[in-house]
Every structure is written in C-alpha cells, then in structure tokens.
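User: Could you write out the 3D structure of this protein bound to pyridoxal-5'-phosphate? I've included everything you need below.
Assistant: Certainly. Input first, then the structure.
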Amino acid sequence: MKSFLPRIEIVLSQIRDNTRLLCELYGKQGISLMGVSKAVLGEPSVIEAMLQGGVKFIADSRIENIQKMRNAGISTQFVLLRTPLSQAESVVRNADISFNTEIETLRKLSYFAKVQNKQHQIVIMVEMGDLREGVMLCDLFQFIRKTLTLSHLKIVGIGCNLACYGGVKPDGKNMHALSELVDRIEKEFQLSLEIVSGGNSANYEWYKSTLNVGNINNLRLGESIFLGCETVNRKAIPGLHTRAFQLVAEVIESKKKPSLPFGEICQDAFGNIPNFQDRGVRQRAIVALGRQDVLVSGLQAENKLEILGASSDHIILDSRNYNLKIGDEVNFNLDYGSLLAAMTSPFIQKQFVSCNRSAIAA
Ligand SMILES: *Cc1c(COP(=O)(O)O)cnc(C)c1O
C-alpha cells in the first residue's frame, strides 16, 4: 500500500484496549463513560473502536460530527456536548441528548422537538468554578422550574466541566457539591436524574483518591482514551497505550547551517522578533509539515530530534548527529491540541495501521 505523507497513523486496537480498560476502571464504582469523538472529527472506525471498548454514549461538541457518524451507520446514543443555538433543529434531529445552559436555546429545542414529534433529552450543565459553560448555582432551581414547563424536553441529568478554561481541578469538594445537588433537585422536583456527569479526563486523580463517588455516575473521556493520560498533570494512566496516534512527515531539506540567522533581524512570519542561541554550525532538517497542519508546540519528534521552529508549512529540526536524508520519514508524538489540529488538517492523510512502536504506560 502506498503511504502518503504527511500522515497520521492510528492504531484502532490500542484505542479499543484503552477504552476497555477505562470502562473497567470507572465501572468499578458505577461510572459509565461517554467516548468523546471531537478530536477525531467523528471518524467512524475510531468510534467503532470506542464502542467495542464499552462506552455507553458517544459525545461530540459539533453536530456536524454527530451527523457524519449517524450517516456512517453508527448506532448508539449521541450526545452534543456544546450548548447549541442556531443549530437547534439539527440537534433535535441528530442528537439524543444535548448539554444546555440557556432557556432561550431550550425553548428552540422544545419547539423543534414538537415539530419533529420527538422528545429531546437534556443535561443541564452547572457552573462549578471553571467558568466555561454552566448555570450559576443561585439560578439553578429557577432554571429547572422554567425548563420543566417546556413540553417536548426531558431533563435526564446534570453535569459540570472543570479543568478546561479556568484550570480548576476536580476534587472531593466540587464533586461532592455536584453530588449533593442531585439529591436536592430530585427531592424538590420529583425528578430522577439518570446522568450525573462529573467531568472529563481531568477527573482521574479525584477518582483514584476518592472512596465514595456519591451520585456521580458518568464521565466524558477524550484524551484518556486517545493518548492514555489524565489531564491534571498529563501523567500516563497505568496500562494504557500512549502512542495510538503518530504523525509522520518527510524530510525535504537536510543541510549543515549556522545556528544564527545572518542579516538584519525583523519580524518573522507570525509577527514575532525571533531570538537565537549560537551553537555553531549544525546539521538541520526541514520536514514538510507546519502550523497550518498542527499545533507545533504540542509535537515531540522521535530520537530526541529538537524542533527549532516552524512556519506555516515547514518545521525545522536540529537533527543532531542523526544524519537525516531527504525522503526520510520523521515520527512525532502528539498532545491533544496537536491531535485536534492534525485530524482537522485536510493535508494530513489518516491511515489505520495494525501496530507501531507501541508504548504502554507502566
Ligand atoms: C471535549 C470535552 C470533553 C472531553 O475532554 P477530555 O479532556 O478530552 O477528556 C468533556 N466534556 C466536554 C464538555 C468537552 O467539551
């Protein structure tokens, strides 16, 4: 088979293994998982791997990705993670559940659910301190009261999101607060909340250290499944594969050059005044990949090759004593930001492979 460059190599069996292990781990205390598909743009074979691994729901922040998965014939419960507005009609058509924080949006969802002769399920997101999406606690009961007047909606749960914008850590305190709310809401409104979604890949440490998860019965995982790590300290989770995705690009120039640019220094391509360290003449390589394709700061090149810098279409490497020739392939590990970008780049070919230089966290 012809290998395209640049390409992202994806090992489906490792994604399935990671998912299975996480389902077993969190399942021990009754926590179900939503497999979060946005980083792979709802790529159907990756989603199938997550479903085989045991996730109960597939969740995405983009309705277009959910539509794509449905069109590919994937059958599961689809959850829209980002609160919708102008896309309400499509959300009711394509998602079974959506996360919400605004009454105006809920009115639209209820309206379109009525038109489509459906009941749309919602999870209300509660602000627990990270300051991204969420209804403030002081407004929550009034919000629920209003939501209950909307005929074609069903409140199936509450949730919160942490460690995203504000970097607030999920801990015993905020998880307990979310958990307590469940009891109060169920009592006040005679509701039964099936889903209590406590967070994302940042909830690992909390989970490992808590003896009692309370009412929390769901988490939404992207990064842990794909990259095998938690996201408070970006530590690998024991037993998980950390290299299910590898980016591969080709060397298009390899030369000895001085490490200091010569000529008068002005702004670089992105408006910064660059600053360089003189290391003498070094062997350097350029790979055909750039800031239009990935978040270069989230890449790690193999063999300790050092990334010196990048422009929109070129990454410049110090190839050390490693004599790279043009046409050679360079492998990169990706962080979540780079993975998101690489999967979104139309220039990077997605290729499924059966194995790679596997790494399992000890
Ligand atoms: C992206 C997203 C997630 C997944 O986060 P990870 O850190 O990748 O596990 C969970 N919840 C919401 C609301 C998201 O937008």
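The chain has a mean pLDDT of 95.
User: Perfect, thank you.
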